[in-house]
UniProtKB/TrEMBL annotation:
Organism expressing this protein natively: Lachancea mirantina
Domain of life where this protein originates: Eukaryota
Protein name in the entry: LAMI_0E09076g1_1
Length: 96
């Protein structure tokens, strides 16, 4: 009888949340770039590379440069983030 180990792992997927320009280049408070974008994120525990248990299922804004992430629940929260960002942009665009 041979012993077959169970290989557990973790797999995650980031799927584009929205294709609109409005959400495509948000500000990252960690590395100060404008590369943050919203994604639909899924994280699963895998057994034999087959996703079995979901451990995270939600929406996040993600910075691809420093990997900063923040959860958001719905469009309303995302809109709020975008509105806060407008202040940051306005502040940076101004003379000083
Ligand atoms: Zn960043």
């Amino acid at each position: 009888m041979s012993f077959v180990p169970i290989i557990c792992g973790k797999q995650d997927w980031d799927k584009d949340y929205a294709q609109t320009q409005q959400y495509s280049s948000l500000y990252c408070p960690n590395c100060h770039n404008f590369q943050v974008r919203p994604v639909k994120r899924r994280e699963f525990i895998t057994i034999w590379f087959i996703p079995v248990f979901p451990i995270f299922w939600g929406k996040q804004v993600v910075c691809p440069i420093c990997n900063w992430r923040q959860d958001f629940k719905n469009d309303e929260q995302l809109q709020k983030i975008v509105r806060e960002q407008e202040h940051i942009r306005a502040g940076k665009a101004g003379p000083g």
